[in-house]
Design goal:
Arc Repressor Mutant, subunit A, three-stranded antiparallel beta sheet, 135 residues, rod-shaped, single chain, 57% helix
Amino acid sequence: MHFRDKPAPEPRAYPEGTLEGCLREMLREMLREMLREVVREEIAAHRAEPAPEGGGEYVPVHVAAGVVGVDPATIRRWQKSGAIGRYKAGRENRVKLSELHAYLARDARPDESPDVDALARRILADGRLDRRRGG
């Protein structure tokens, strides 16, 4: 409901009881309601904005999960393990996006494959290959 659709608030009696006092009170109430509505709209618009991809911004767990495409429980598990930081804003658990992206960049690196030649030389030196073949 928009503030223009709402009926004007009932005027309160001023000690003087003047028309000017009543108009001032009505104007104050209308301005308060308009301000409340603008603040509500701005908060709703801010919540609807997608989170940026990087930077030092602190975001709620559910937003961080949406940014990287995982379940919020995964983000909390990473925080609990110490892989990423846990930051509190009041009662809300938050994630620093730059830390999250750094963690994912580290985790996305391919594991080093074992040196097959070195492993084969070590096996031959130990004689394991001969024992397995029975000779």
